[in-house]
């Protein structure tokens, strides 16, 4: 396994391999980071056979810019969201590039996304399978990927050491809590958990984050904007996310 962490929001990109196949899950954000992916795969001997995404937020969908001919797999809820929000990811990418003076990107092609049943399993290599776990709540869609032979959980925008639970438009605090509890048994088994934002954490470290996030969501529901943020994630940016959370659940 290889995990890259983008300079933008510490967005993670994970290479997982079994035998003569490898998947790339999610993506970094900046062009130079994306351009490096192919070389990293070649140097590590990871034959990339497909891309996966945890959810349909644009900053997790950029793998096609690095591997334009690769298939892109997503949970059914994510494939449905991409279909209903046609062009939204491309618009948000253009807005980001304009704000950050990024130029020269090619078009982001998201046609032909392969929707996969969740819960379900996806084969990799000759003898291994990834478990696909429902992971909604942050948004209306979401899939976490459990690799039992590696004891690795890639969970999208959950269990972050740098970001509090974010209830995006269309998300749900109830669904977010349900996802955390759904992930708990896998976190207990995991040696490594890769969140959507922030570097990899150990299984015990992720379990601490999970309990802190559940406590935050329950206090948010009870106390709204006066709820305390999780320890270590009390920056000005996280307070802004918290205020948006309180507005959405009010």
Write structural notes for this entry:
The protein is an alpha/beta fold and 250 residues long. The chain has one domain: Ribonuclease Z/Hydroxyacylglutathione hydrolase-like (Metallo-beta-lactamase, Chain A, 4-Layer Sandwich). The chain contains 7 helices and 12 strands. The strands form 2 sheets. The chain has a 6-stranded mixed beta sheet with strand order 1-2-3-4-5-6. α2 links the parallel β4 (48-53) and β5 (72-75). α5 (173-189) packs antiparallel against α6 (203-223). The longest helix is centred in the C-terminal third of the chain and has 21 residues, at 203-223. The radius of gyration is 17 Å and the shape is globular. The mean pLDDT is 96.
Number of strands: 12
Gyration radius, rounded: 17 Å
CATH architecture: 4-Layer Sandwich
For the sheet with most strands, the description reads: 6 strands, mixed
Decide which structural class fits the backbone: alpha/beta
Q: What is the global morphology?
A: globular
Output the keywords.
250 residues, alpha/beta, six-stranded mixed sheet, 23% strand
């Amino acid at each position: 396994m290889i995990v890259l962490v983008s300079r933008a929001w510490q967005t993670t990109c994970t290479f997982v391999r079994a035998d003569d196949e490898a998947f790339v899950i999610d993506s970094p954000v900046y062009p130079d980071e994306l351009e490096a992916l192919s070389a990293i795969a070649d140097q590590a001997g990871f034959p990339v056979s497909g891309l996966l995404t945890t959810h349909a937020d644009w900053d997790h969908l950029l793998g096609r810019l690095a591997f334009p001919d690769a298939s892109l797999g997503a949970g059914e809820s994510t494939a449905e969201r991409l279909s209903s929000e046609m062009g939204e990811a491309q618009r948000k990418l253009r807005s980001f590039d304009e704000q950050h003076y990024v130029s020269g990107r090619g078009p982001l092609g998201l046609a032909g996304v392969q929707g996969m049943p969740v819960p379900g399993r996806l084969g990799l290599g000759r003898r291994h399978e990834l478990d696909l776990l429902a992971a909604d709540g942050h948004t209306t869609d979401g899939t976490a990927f459990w690799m039992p032979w590696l004891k690795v959980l890639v969970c999208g925008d959950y269990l972050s050491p740098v970001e509090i639970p974010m209830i995006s438009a269309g998300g749900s605090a109830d669904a977010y809590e349900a996802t955390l509890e759904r992930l708990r048994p896998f976190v207990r088994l995991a040696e490594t958990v890769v969140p959507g934002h922030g570097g990899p954490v150990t299984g015990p470290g992720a379990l601490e984050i999970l309990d802190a996030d559940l406590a935050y969501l329950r206090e948010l529901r009870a106390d709204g904007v006066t709820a305390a943020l999780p320890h270590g994630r009390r920056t000005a940016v996280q307070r802004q996310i918290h205020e948006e959370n309180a507005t959405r659940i009010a």
